[in-house]
Every structure is written in structure tokens, then in C-alpha cells.
Amino acid sequence: MAYTFTDLAKDVLNTVKQPMSVNDVWEKALEMGLVQKLGSAGKTPAATLGARMYGDTKYAGENSIFIRVSNRPALFKLRGQADVDVANIQTPKEKVPTFKERDLHKILSSYVLSDPHFSCYTTTIFHEKSKRKAKGQNAWLHPDIVGVRFPFQDYEDNARQLMKSMSVGICKLFSFELKTDINFSTLRESYFQAVSNSSWANEGYLVALKYDQDPEFLDEMRRLNNAFGIGFIRLDSEDYVQSEIILSAKNNEILDWNTISRLSEDNEDFKRFAHSVTKNLNVDELFSKDNFDKTFETLDEFLAYVKDKKIKV
């Protein structure tokens, strides 16, 4: 029989003999070499593991393999294992990343250029370049990265001229708020930061390299997405092309020109971005990507970058 995620969780909990979170089970399974036994684990294996464990406790009743012994953090043990005082459990300390959040920018820029939903060119917004304002006045104003899609850059010249004469809407603007890690304690602040600094764009996204695998966390993310329309992207540190949209953003047909004007006035990077968009919208000129962020040309270049920056989930 095939080795399953349930088998993996059972083996880990049998070895550790104390309640564990889904993330900790997955990390221990990696350490024990159990993940290789799964064969194909999919794009988000830790999320699949979480779904199996939460589903078992929710639907199997007294026949469940796992028992959930606490909610936040959500900890599981095997049915039949001795009860443990959850308050005294020593959970593994979170590893502090050695890389910087901005080291992830090039990964995100490469992904959104390669993904057909976006096909967009990006510009990093350095907040420290903004004009100094009264304390709090510019809080949550600037997105980390802004992007633009030009569906016309590869079109033949006559087609471009026709689009211009018909005043076809040929440009789409994106806003991205990037985080290294998101969990229950940081979700709302991170999400509403993205809500605040993405109001001007057609689509706004919260992006993370790592996020809580608790299904209740994803349910809360879905509620926020339904209410406010900000999407969510998972970055992949092993292959940026395998990054994915977990929740799609709501498309805003009407742009917030007041905020666009303020961003252009306050920040040189956004002003340069707006100028590049305007220049490239002139179909009489050749398309230029010189002023946009650099992206990876090959997978080998990406892998060398990740290794050099020590980027890992």
C-alpha cells in the first residue's frame, strides 16, 4: 500500500510522543526522511498534511486517529497516547530567517512576470525614499512592489495603432504587500496593511513565503478575501514558477487616482514607475523594460540566488 500523509503523521507522533502542530509534524518528518516515502507530495504538502489531520479530528468522531488537544496553537496527539499538560509542552522555536524580506522581491517579480494571470513588470517601492511626513501620516500607504501588465508589447505595430485609435484599455495595475511569514497573530495586521496600500490598483495581493497551515487560518483568510478583495499568493523558494495564487483578488475597474497622485508626489520609485507606464503606453515607441525590476533569466540563476541568500521556508 502507498505511504500516505496520515501514515507520516502517525509515524512522527509515535516517535515524538507528545502533541505537535501540523508545521512541527511536517518539519520532523523532513528531519526523519519520511517525506520521500510519499512519492508525489504536491505543491503545498504541509497544507495537505494539515487537511488530513484536521479532517480526521472533525469528521471521524470516536474513530479518529488523531485528537486535537488545543486550539491556538493547534496541537495533535494520537488517540490512545497518554494525556499531556499542553501548557508544559516545549515546542520547537521558530528559526529566525537569515535573509531579508526584500531578498524575496526578485522571486515575486520573476513569478508575476512568468504567470499568465499577471504577466506584469514590477517596481520595488523603497519606503525610506518617501518624503518625511508627520508621524503616522504615511503609515500603510506604500505597497512593497507595484506591477503593470502591457498585453500589447509583443503585438504587431498595426494592431497596436488600432488599439490606440479605439482607446482600448490595455493596461492593468497590481499592488503587492510581501511578508516572510504570516500566522494567526500577524494575519489581520498584514492583511489590512495590504488593504490600505492597494486601494489604488486594479488588483491587490498579500504575499508570503510561509503561512500557517491551520485550515482555520485559511478560512479566516477566505473571510477577509470575501469582505475586502485582497488576494493571497504563496511564494515557492524551490522554484518561483511553482508559486501560486491561493486566493484571487477582486478586480477593481475604477482606480483610486487620489492615492496614485499622492504616491507619485511622495515617492520617487512610484513616480518612476508611473513614468515608465506612461512611456510604454505610447504605442509609437518601442516597449522598454529598462526601468522595471530585474528578474531571473534561468532556473539555475534562481537556485544560485536562493542558495546565496539562504532563503528557505
3D structure, described in words:
With 313 residues, the protein is α/β, with parallel strands linked by helices. The strands form 2 sheets. Strands 3-4-5-6-7-8 form a 6-stranded mixed sheet, with helices on both faces. Strands 1-2 form a two-stranded antiparallel sheet. The model has no long low-confidence stretch (mean pLDDT 86). The two termini are 30 Å apart. Helix 6 links the parallel strand 5 (172-182) and strand 6. It has 10 helices and 8 strands. The longest helix has 15 residues, at 45-59. It has helices at 5-16, 22-32, 45-59, 105-114, 157-165, 184-197, 215-228, 257-266, 268-281, 299-309, and strands spanning 66-70, 75-78, 120-124, 145-149, 172-182, 203-211, 231-234, 244-247.
What is the rounded distance between the termini? 30 Å
Question: Based on CA inertia axes, which overall geometry fits?
Answer: elongated
Order of SSEs: HHHEEHEEHEHEHEEHHH
How many structural domains?
2
By DSSP, the count of extended strands is 8
Rg from Cα: 23 Å
* Total count of helical runs of at least 4 residues: 10
Biggest sheet strand order reads: 3-4-5-6-7-8
Determine the fraction of residues in helical runs and give it as a percent range.
Answer: 25-40%
